[in-house]
Design a protein that fits this description.
heterotrimer, A mainly alpha (431), B alpha+beta (478), C alpha+beta (148), A: 3-stranded antiparallel β-sheet, two-stranded antiparallel sheet, 69% helix, C: alpha+beta, 6-stranded antiparallel β-sheet, 5-stranded mixed β-sheet, 11 strands
């Protein structure tokens, strides 16, 4: 990263002011509804969060950053909504989330300061693959690994901090795929032979990718996390399509997914349970058992109506583990379908902006990187909102920026940092 | 290379945008389209839990006896139920398992959001300010209810008694029942819920409105009504020879007379002896279409307009009567017929009420906290189902079915009162036949109509008639 | 008092929803504006003086066929601060300068380690570049093209 004279980022600043207003208003409503009075003192927490957001802006200005001005306010706005919801649903976790925000902000700055044009990321792609692999396996290790809620996807020291390494793995995976596919793109997309309509890719080039994917799948089966498996698979397919433009890979991939899902349904209880609940959460034997969380979530949505019950006035707290799995339903219940649409639109703008950055990026690697990272946000949002609304089976994927959870907050801020860096490089190349 | 990465990115973005659209529609479906159903779902505990910190309204019967009230329990209010015989009617209101019965159907009134009070509803939803709930008064008459409980004690089945003129339900017993207090006790609710749901006798079902049985010979009332209104002379004798089949095309299928009868029957004798072959011939004479029409008029295959969940039953699997053997079987109450006791009580009530069907209702009125009447339930549209003169003829036939010498329904007789009634014996795959009795009294100006079903009764309808008689006797104070 | 509070609280709740939409609209406007601005720069480029078309590249470098727009004076090199950024190990941080003067294009080496080639020969001093000429920096080759 080249340092240069400070540059004003007025659009960003303007949007951050809106975030501040939004954040304070929402927080005030939640606190007032809970305590029965307007407790101004309680606004300290959102104020601190806003101060951190402001510092990030000042940081970007001071290093003369010339990248995009929209993504940071969007990410920060969604995070602010997340803080409102943590205060609403699990006030006890608020300080923890605030400390994670500090770490996330640090991680963001470090990402912004990655030297030069990110080529280091592409050059050491196998290192990233290895790091990702180690991170992925780490929850299975005896000392640091933790099993929480039936999924062995955590590392940490009991009582101090836990981290979900797969959150980081998703970024490592995108970097690796971007670098690898860039290198072998021609080979993958111009198959020398076709058997009928079926392109036969040169296997030596596909093998490392499939291998990486297989390892991810296997580890996920052992760590029992449906969501991460789905996410990795989604990233894999999307990146392959982006690099090759070959719908055949996507079709095969989807068939693999359906086939794998079918096998997993019969082979693994935790998968079968999820699918059964999805198919019939209201059936008499699931309604008050494993289907309870989903039915309560749907009751929550039903209570929303067009404009919602009002912040702090619904009762989403009836949904078990609402603050990490069902924030979307909780938010919808209190701000209504209208509010939910706005939230989804914010994500869509974020993704659209990310994809534009990818379109403009000067090198193939940067294009693939930016598109892959944007895809992560889109995919996570769709999968968890779809799960909350019973469109697809529920998975443990978090709603980016909004859901409670330190690992995902840190990773997603790094993701924003990388996207900003790509746009900064673009801006500098194409002055 | 044919496509650039840029084109791939554009295409992927388009796919993502479409996926967002689909997801939004999904969210809209639950929050707007399916919302009413989910909010009214009896297993949705939100409304109940929303008011756990304050008492719900009371449920009382016509005499003022309290059937359900809230008692303070640590930091919340818990329900206490006093009459187990009304468990399926009053229902339960559990923080975990939702609500049933009147507790569910009149939830709004019980938490200070009566549907008639729009301002109150609005205040409750948006300001969290609820008006103090009053009470819900159900029409159950404790004297008749007690008689019904005693008469059915130790058996499985159901009794319903109602006022043929107003539709007010006076007694409602469904056995086996359950202890609702266990379902609202946090310490015992889970095991109780589990056991009740595993119990194959289905104690949670209100057999009166939700239990479905073949109506057996009680169906003959409808067959007779259809015949009388389609030019059949009740005094015309019809030859009965057991066993009977209309022609050779029936193969080895025969209609059997329960008494193995050979002789000439008019309609009155056929009612007294409950002669299947007579009614089978009657049904074949008027035809399946007419029979189906009258069954529908009497509410078979349609959910009764009652204020608690009710089953609709069926005339046949297809809803039509195409085959002659099915017409014959349906005419005397077997075939593929399924009805609830409430539906059959309404058949009796309609005949007693000069052919006019009224809408049944459990709840009589909603009262405000000071006891003033907020609104009354019932008095819905009444339909002329059959002509008054047909009803009068049927009444005479049904009186004879109870009072004539050798009549099967003799067990329902009450000294000094003319009782109209009909027994029924419903063949079923689960063991010995179910016994039915439907009737009303006094025949000339009915105060009460009843339907009794005793599951796997040893002798079918003969067992049920005295039970019906006991309930009517209690109602008439005899 | 209680009602006043409830009304105020509803005011705040509605304000939140309104602000949510205002924020969304602002974000959308910013998106549109940046789109427009980028289109302007693209347009400026297309009516600009000339472009360098990448004819030879490698993994990590610019795409082959990419058109790098030129201004009056352009620094070429590995550093992100250059006008033309060439991600190549063999390129120096500030490698060469391409400039337009007196109606002609000129190429000048900026003291690079590995040198700059014009049509295969190393450039030692400022040399004239014609449309269609090949410029090689490190492992990346570029062709000067006129913009239509």
């Amino acid at each position: 990263m080249m340092r240069s004279r400070p540059v004003a980022r007025l659009h960003e600043l303007q949007l951050l002011v809106w975030v501040a207003a939004l954040s304070i208003t929402g927080y005030l409503a939640v606190v007032a509804a809970a305590s029965g009075r307007f407790a101004w003192l309680e606004l300290v927490v959102p104020a601190v969060a806003l101060a951190i957001f402001g510092l990030l802006h000042i940081f970007l200005v001071s290093i003369g950053f010339r990248g995009d001005q929209l993504l940071l306010p969007l990410a920060v706005g969604l995070t602010a909504i997340g803080f409102i919801l943590v205060e609403r649903l699990a006030p006890g976790l608020l300080l923890q989330q605030l400390s994670w925000l500090v770490i996330a902000a640090g991680a963001f700055c470090v990402t912004i300061l990655i030297p030069r044009d990110l080529s280091a990321l592409s050059r050491y792609k196998y290192t990233w693959a290895l790091v990702g692999l180690l991170l992925l396996i780490s929850p299975l290790l005896p000392v640091v690994g933790r099993e929480i809620n039936g999924a062995r996807i955590w590392v940490g020291i009991r009582g101090i901090a836990q981290f979900e390494p797969w959150e980081l793995v998703k970024i490592a995976l995108v970097i690796f795929f971007a670098a690898y596919l860039e290198e072998h793109r021609e080979m993958l997309s111009t198959p020398p032979r076709r058997i009928g309509p079926i392109p036969v890719p040169p296997l030596p080039y596909l093998l490392p990718i499939v291998g990486m994917w297989l390892v991810a799948m296997l580890v996920m089966v052992f760590e029992k996390d449906l969501g991460a498996t789905l996410l990795f698979f989604g990233i894999f397919l999307a990146m392959l399509y982006l690099a090759t433009g070959e719908p055949f890979y996507v079709v095969v991939g989807l068939l693999l997914l359906v086939g794998g899902g079918f096998v997993a349904y019969h082979a693994f209880n935790h998968v079968a349970a999820r699918v059964d609940v999805w198919l019939a959460p209201f059936s008499s034997d699931l309604r008050f058992d494993t289907g309870y969380q989903l039915t309560q979530g749907l009751f929550s949505l039903a209570n929303a109506g067009l404009f919602g019950a009002g912040l702090g006035n619904g009762m989403p707290e009836r949904i078990p583990v609402v603050w990490s799995d069902f924030v979307f339903d909780a938010f919808t219940e209190e701000v209504g379908f209208v509010g939910a649409l706005a939230l989804l639109a914010l994500y869509l703008v974020f993704v659209y902006r990310g994809m534009l950055i990818a379109l403009r990026a000067p090198t193939t690697f940067l294009q693939l990187l930016a598109a892959g990272l944007s895809f992560i946000i889109a995919f996570q949002t769709l999968v968890i909102v779809g799960g909350n609304a019973k469109l697809i089976p529920l998975t443990g994927i978090t709603l980016p920026f909004v859901a409670y959870g330190g690992s995902s907050l840190v990773t997603n801020f790094m993701l924003v940092g990388l996207l900003l860096r790509v746009s900064d490089i673009t801006a500098r190349v194409r002055r | 290379m044919s496509r650039t990465i840029a084109a791939n990115i554009r295409r992927l973005t388009l796919v993502i945008a479409v996926a967002f659209l689909v997801t939004s529609i999904g969210v809209g479906y639950w929050s707007l389209v399916a919302a009413d159903d989910l909010n009214a779902d009896p297993f949705n505990p939100r409304l109940i839990a929303a008011v756990r910190d304050r008492p719900r309204g009371r449920i009382v019967d016509a005499s003022g006896r309290v059937l359900a009230a809230s008692v303070r329990d640590a930091d919340s209010y818990r329900r206490r139920y006093t009459d187990r015989s009304l468990a399926e009617v009053v229902g339960y209101a559990s923080f975990k398992y939702g609500a049933s019965g009147v507790e569910a159907a009149y939830q709004g009134s019980l938490i200070g959001q009566d549907p008639s009070d729009l301002v109150g509803q609005w205040r409750a939803r948006y300001l969290g300010v609820r008006t103090e709930p009053g009470s819900v008064v159900i029409g159950i008459d404790p004297k008749i209810q007690q008689a019904a409980v005693t008469a059915l004690a130790g058996r499985r089945g159901a009794i319903v008694a109602l006022d043929p003129k107003t539709g007010r339900i006076l007694a409602s017993v469904s056995l086996p029942n359950y202890e609702a207090n266990l379902l609202v006790d946090p310490a015992q609710q889970d095991t109780a819920w589990d056991q009740l749901n595993r119990n194959t006798d289905k104690p949670l079902i209100n057999r009166v409105a939700q239990g479905l049985y073949p109506p057996g010979s009680t169906m003959k009332i409808i067959t007779a009504a259809a015949a009388l209104e389609n030019g059949v002379n009740p005094d015309q004798k019809i030859r009965v020879d057991d066993p009977y089949q209309a022609d050779r095309s029936w193969g080895d299928y025969f209609v059997r007379s329960s008494s193995g009868a050979h002789g000439d029957f008019d309609m009155s004798l056929a009612f007294q002896r409950s002669e299947n072959i007579y009614f089978a011939k009657l049904g074949l004479t008027i035809g399946g279409a007419k029979l189906a029409e009258y069954a529908k008029r009497f509410g078979i295959g349609r959910v009764p307009a009652v204020d608690l969940p009710a089953a609709k039953g069926q005339l046949s699997n297809s809803g039509q009567l195409e085959r002659p053997t099915l017409v014959a079987d349906t005419s005397y109450g077997q075939g593929e017929l399924l009805t609830s006791p409430l539906q059959m009580a309404l058949v009796a009530a309609t005949v007693g009420n000069h052919g006019v069907a009224v809408q049944p209702h459990y709840v009589m009125e909603i009262r405000d906290p000071s006891g003033g009447v907020l609104r009354t339930i019932g008095g819905g549209a009444a339909d002329q189902v059959i002509r008054a003169d047909t009803a009068a003829k049927l009444t005479a036939l049904l009186v004879a079915a109870v009072e004539a010498p050798g009549a099967f329904a003799f067990g329902a007789r009450i000294p000094g009162v003319h009782v109209a009634g009909k027994t029924g014996t419903a063949e079923n795959p689960s063991g010995s036949p179910h016994g039915w009795f439907v009737g009303f009294a006094p025949a000339e100006d009915p105060q009460i109509a009843v339907a009794v079903i005793i599951e796997n009764a040893g002798q079918g309808g003969v067992d049920a008639a005295p039970v019906g008689g006991a309930v009517m006797r209690a109602a008439l104070g005899k | 008092m209680e009602i006043t509070f409830a009304v105020l609280l509803w005011g705040v709740r509605i304000a939140f929803l309104v602000l949510l939409y205002l924020f969304l609209i602002r974000a959308f406007r910013t998106l549109q504006r940046s789109l427009a601005e980028e289109r302007v720069t693209m347009a400026a480029r297309s009516v600009g003086l000339a472009v360098l078309v990448v004819t030879l590249s490698h993994a990590g470098g610019p795409r082959v066929g990419e058109r790098l727009p030129l201004r009056a004076v352009n620094s070429v090199g590995r550093d992100a601060g250059n006008d033309v950024v060439l991600n190549d190990d063999a390129a120096s941080a500030k490698h060469a300068v391409v400039s337009f003067a007196d109606g002609e294009w000129w190429l000048e080496d900026a003291g690079s380690t590995n040198g700059t080639l014009l049509n295969g020969t190393r450039v030692w001093e400022r040399e004239r570049v014609h449309y269609g000429d090949q410029v090689q920096v490190g492992r990346i080759a570029l062709r000067l093209e006129r913009v239509q």
